[in-house]
Amino acid sequence: MSEEIEEFIEEEVEEVEVVEDDPTALTDEELDNIADTAIAALKDVLKYFNVGEVTIDEYEGDEGELILDITGDDLAVLIGRHGKTLDALQFIISAITVRKIGFRFPVIIDVEGYKNRQRQKLESLARSSANKAASQGRSVKLRPMTPYERRIIHVALRDDARVDTASEGEGTARHVVVVPVK
To answer: Is 51 helix (H, G, I), strand (E, B) or coil?
Structure first.
């Protein structure tokens, strides 16, 4: 990472204080302020990636989160290998937004729908794993995943009465196990 980016992050993320608030109790004006703050932070960080002209679309996700989807030419650098750069970008923008608004609000950064496509793949994996666990009567252990990916699996299967899910393992080896209900 360049020295400029490191300095920017240190300035913006220094000493984040979090005050929990109920996102459902926010007014439209407060939600607009959160979106404006997150978009401004994202634009500031994107300057260091030299990605040229981009468009940032904002919309509300299924769980009330703010989703910022970046579109433009040649944005692969923002995604990185297996989405690692995108995860880091989301972490930075979330931290800056928390610091500036004073409380935690879920902000998801996406690039040309990459995370949405990954989510669909994970939901499909969850359903097929649930089918396998239920039909074979045995637990199905999934590959190690990030906390975000594990959450998608848990949410996708929370209403499936045939199975339960649990996260097992430590650190980068943490994974989801889909367990048939007996």
So the answer is: coil
Does residue 1 or residue 11 have the better pLDDT? 11
Of the options 3.30.230.10, 3.20.20.150, 3.40.1190.20, 3.30.300.20, the CATH number for the domain spanning 3-112: 3.30.300.20
| Predicted confidence (pLDDT) per residue in 126-157, tens digit | 999 999 999 999 999 999 998 889 999 999 99
For domain 117-180, the question of CATH label 3.40.718.10 is answered with no
Element at 166 (helix H, strand E):
strand 163-168
Cβ pair 37, 97 in contact under 8 A:
yes
Q: Structure tokens of 106? A: 């879920």
At a CB cut-off of 8 Å and minimum separation 6, what does 141 contact? 168, 175, 176, 177
| pLDDT (tens digit per residue) in 50-69 | 888 999 999 988 778 899 99
Distance CA 105, CA 25 (A): 12
Q: Which of 123, 95, 122 is nearest to 109 (CA)?
A: 95
What does R_g of the chain's alpha carbons equal in angstroms?
A: 18
The pLDDT confidence band at residue 17, using thresholds 50, 70 and 90, is very low
